[in-house]
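Comment thread on ticket #2218

A.B. wrote:
> Attaching the input chain for the structure job we discussed in standup.
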Amino acid sequence: MTELDKAHAAMEAAPEDAAARLRFYDRLSGSELFLMLEREPLDDAIEPELFDLGDARFVLVFDTEARLAEFAGRIVPYAALSGRALVQMMAGQAIGLGLNLEVAPSSILIPAEAVDWLAETVSHRPAEAQARVSAFHAPGSLPEGLLGALDARLASAAGLARKAYLAEAAYDSGARNHVIGITGAAPGAEAALAQAINEALVFSGIEAGTLDVLFLSDSDPAAAQLARVALRFDLPEPPSAEPLERPAPGSDPDKPPILR
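C.D. wrote:
> Ran it. Output below, let me know if you need it in another format.
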């Protein structure tokens, strides 16, 4: 059973639970998905195979290559890309997602309206601000849903940083807020890490909640202060991979494929 299967089962078991529904869409947006294509990609352009079901149109995606192969029963072209990238490309096109149809417990049709909502949700960007921290304190009581979402998001950020610390920060202005301090961030990874944390907050279902993000060097005195009082998350090392002669469409987040 994949993580998407588990999230889908939890949502189905509690149809009135908004938090369970948000966790499913959080998992969907953060998962690598395999999109069935009409034909092999041409440069950076991909053409998904479209299926008409009644008066609605859907593309088909699977959370494993094996499930795609089982559904198709033949060799088919596909593109591997994140759920986040896929819904952002599909937004506004009146096309839904058919996820793991007929081959998994998480088989579900996601209508175009939900695709548009998810695309808008993941497009929100955290705002930048300047503030001076006067002290760090142990984190206060936080919902388990948020802690779980943070853990999942940071675990998926393999190789982007070494550690993240959750604490409560007191600012010179007198304000207090929870903060994530990140150390060992890879060059250029700050925006992706801040976005991942922002999405964890959004999908946790906390209304009007905020979470500040700080990027610190390992030698920064603030990092040592955080280590003494904070809840620590260790980010995994990046997986080793064989070099690819031709990267799959969607594998470069700075150069997403183009739908045709």
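A.B. wrote:
> Thanks. Noting for the ticket: The chain has two domains: 3-123, 133-234.
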